[in-house]
Amino acid sequence: MHKQTQAIRIQAEQSPEKEHSTPLYLTSSFTFDTAEDMRAAFADETDDNIYSRYSNPTVDEFVKKMCVLEGAEAGFATASGMAAVFNSIFALLKAGDHLICCSSVFGSTYALATKFLPRYNIECTLVKANKPEEWEAAVKPNTKMIFLETPTNPQLEILDLEWAGKFCKKHNLIFNIDNCFASPIIQNPIEFGADIVSHSATKWIDGQGRVLGGVVLGRKDLVHEIYMFCRNTGPSLSAFNAWVLSKSLETLDVRMERHCNNALSIATKLESNEKISWVKYPFLPSHPEYHIAIKQMKKGGGLLCFELKGGIESGRKFLDALALLSMTPNLGDTRSIASHPASTTHSKLTEAERLSVGITPGLIRISAGLENVNDIINDIEQALSKC
Ligand SMILES: Cc1ncc(COP(=O)(O)O)c(C=O)c1O
Question: What is the pTM of this model?
Fold first, then answer.
């Protein structure tokens, strides 16, 4: 059966009520008929549900769909994308290990790698996503894992997944990737040798800006270690959020098609706008890594970015002039969203620090929504005319 069909049809067991939409198992714990059944469940002799911090049928339904979409052997769902990222690293590394991480990762992942892991004596070297020679130079005898995003946030740099797979094999490293920006519809890193794939389900997977969620997918042995760590530390996804996210997966494929088509049309139109010095979108031939993007992505994704010639001041004016696009720190929504990292999320950094993580003064990131594309373009163009 096609992945798209399974993302719609995989379902927790129907209740005696014979509901059509999937049931929601909103319960903290599960009961047993006999003391022996309960003993066997705790002894891992059966797969019976015990407690929703460990497993829950609604959460399992979401995980099963995600495994199909990513081609993964196993998975574990978490309360947020950061819980997925954190646990995928922390459950598999120990004091004395070394991690290589791309420098242009999501802000909280950057903080985790540079501020928190060192507290536990896990060393991290940051490298530029699109510079393979930096990855090679960073390998040490105690290197255990690489962590990366592609496309990166917000500069949309692309790292060659085929190269990364071979690199990890050569050095016997765990290949861990946050695939949130692409979504499992656009890119499947396991095909290129990834061992662990995480998602912030808060973004394209929910797709409607309602709930937080995350998921870690990949090799059965590694996911089991992550599961055992999470079972005892408690970052599990709530059944309610899993129900929302599982329903969302039924429409992810069609939504991503529209998000990607809208993003490509916006990026193409903006390339000739006189207020902009450059536009970046993975499927624009002008993107520096276009040849890699078309090799590993089915479409260009729903995000694009551009640089305003007028710098920080123009960025502020642009946001203030928008009438349709939302100003909000999220992405992957039905509603188009604009953000200006230099004056908002990264305003506390010095300009040199911002530049080192790819945040230029006039950088605007657009998350293309599902609105009619002409309305999105008209709003962006009228706002540009006021910068
Ligand atoms: C690439 C990426 N990874 C992880 C996260 C964290 O996800 P969450 O907010 O669900 O914890 C985000 C959030 O914006 C993100 O953009």
Answer: 0.96
Give the helix ranges, DSSP H, for the chain: 3-9, 35-42, 57-70, 81-90, 107-111, 132-138, 161-171, 220-233, 239-249, 252-270, 290-296, 311-321, 351-356, 373-384
Residue 157 near residue 151, CB atoms below 8 Å: yes
Q: In 10 A of CB 9, how many CB atoms? A: 10
If you take atom 2 of ligand 1, which residue's CA is the nearest one?
Answer: 106
Q: Which domains does the chain have, with CATH numbers?
A: 3-249 (3.40.640.10), 252-384 (3.90.1150.10)
CA of 57 to the centre of ligand 1 (A): 25
Q: Is the CB of 106 under 6 A from ligand 1?
A: yes
Q: Give the distance (Å) from ligand 1 centre to CA of residue 110.
A: 11
pLDDT of 349 reads 78
CA distance 196 to 189: 9
Burial of 188 (0-12, 13-18, 19+ CB in 10 A): buried
Q: For the stretch 130-148, what's the b/e string if a residue is b when 16 or more beta carbons lie within 10 angstroms of its beta carbon? A: beeebbeebbeeebbbbbb
Q: Is 272 exposed, middle or buried (0-12, 13-18, 19+ CB in 10 A)?
A: exposed
* Structure tokens, 113: 């790698």
User: Beta-carbon neighbour count of residue 28 at 10 Å?
Assistant: 9
Residue 100 backbone phi and psi in degrees, to 5: -110, 125
Cα–Cα–Cα angle for 276, 280, 283, rounded to 5 degrees: 135
Predicted confidence at residue 346, as pLDDT, reads: 80
Give me the residues of the chain with pLDDT under 50, please.
none
CA separation for the pair 255, 251 (Å, rounded): 6
Compute CA distances 30 → 37, 55, 57, 152, whole Å. 12, 10, 11, 41
Pocket perturbation via mutation, ligand 1, pick of 156, 180, 344 by most ligand atoms within 8 A of CB: 180
- C-alpha 151/C-alpha 129 separation (Å) is 9
Report in angstroms the alpha-carbon separations of 174 from 110, 170, 263: 19, 11, 33
